[in-house]
Amino acid sequence: MAIPAPGPVGLAEQIEPLVARVLAPNPSPYTYTGTQTYLVGRSDLAVIDPGPADEDHIAAIVAGIADRPVRAIMCTHTHRDHSPAAAPLSRLVGAPIIGCAALTLDDDGPRADAAFDVAYAPDRVLADGEQVAGDGWTLTAVATPGHTSNHLCFALDQSGALFTGDHVMGWSTTVVSPPDGDMADYMASMALLLDRDDRIYYPAHGRAIETPRKLVRGMMGHRRQREGQILRRIAEGTDRIEEMVPSMYKGLDPRLYGAAGRSVLAHLIELERQGRVARSGEQWKLRAT
User: Fold this and answer.
1) Which residue, 194, 248, 259, is CA-closest to 220?
2) Of 148, 110, 108, 144, which Cα lies nearest the Cα of 126?
3) Can you give the pTM of this predicted structure?
4) Residue 29 neighbours by CB under 8 Å, 6+ apart
5) Distance of CA 118 to CAs 62, 106, 194, 202, Å?
6) DSSP code per residue over 22-41
7) Is 169:205 a contact under the CB 8 Å cutoff?
8) From the centroid of its chain, how far is CA 133?
9) What's the DSSP call for residue 205?
10) What tens digit of pLDDT does each residue of 8-20 get?
11) Which residues are registered as beta bridge partners of 19?
12) Is the preceding omega at residue 50 within 30 degrees of 0, hence cis?
């Protein structure tokens, strides 16, 4: 059965027996149609990525909960389009906040929606492999640093679904924005997912991913191609990120150039670690081999 595309804002759509989805009203060039909150369970629930602290969205989540007990409010990471609704929702339904660690970091990237949620305060932090369970469902934490250092995915053991947050999205590759975003960590986390046998991915943004391994292989190949593009641009004399982005990301909405530049920087930092490039101020050059 094909999984429907993200639907109307403010309605809990049942997309498989243990999973419902509520779309937040925060569409943007960076969030696509908005953040998708997932309700997992039947008689009792976990809420994954409660989203922005928007009163209408929180009300829609509460309506979807429909007086059932909530065992956990779970956040994949602490960007402001994912975790701020956790605290008000916790007060409303009396559930603990469980999931990723708190992380507050000044990030000079361009994404206002991706600034860290400084108020996030979990009741319990999950390490890789730790679980939260309810009546007929078990969610296992899968540590996937890269987009952020505190990023977790959550595997629903009963159905083979993986809730991927921003690590793998259904509409675009994720932004890897230094200093917290790390390209080596991101690639290692992608390799980890490639070794898993998840049936389907439910991302926080975009369509469900019904061929997970195929997409992960393609995204890893895409990143390697970007690395090659960067090295070629430098060899041709293009030595600044702002000059690389327009030629590397043809057709990209110019509003997203800043975000693309952050991922280019993440690649360059990793190439610098490998001793393949060096920088002087804002300029980059190849290292002699």
Assistant:
1) 194
2) 144
3) 0.93
4) 253, 255, 256
5) 24, 10, 32, 26
6) EE-S--BTTTBT-PEEEEE-
7) yes
8) 22
9) S
10) 888 999 999 999 9
11) 16, 40
12) no
- pLDDT of res. 111: 46
Residue 120 CB coordination number (10 Å): 24
Angle formed by the axes of helices 212-235 and 257-273, nearest 10° = 80
Domains of the chain are 12-210 (3.60.15.10), 221-286 (1.10.10.10)
Above 60 in pLDDT, residue 187? yes
Whether 41 and 135 have beta carbons less than 8 Å apart is answered as yes
Q: How far apart are CA 9 and CA 21, in angstroms?
A: 10
**How is residue 188 written in tokens?**
């290692």
Q: Which two tokens stand for residue 93?
A: 């339904």
**Residue whose structure tokens are 């920087």:** 265
Beta-bridged to residue 152, according to DSSP, are 143
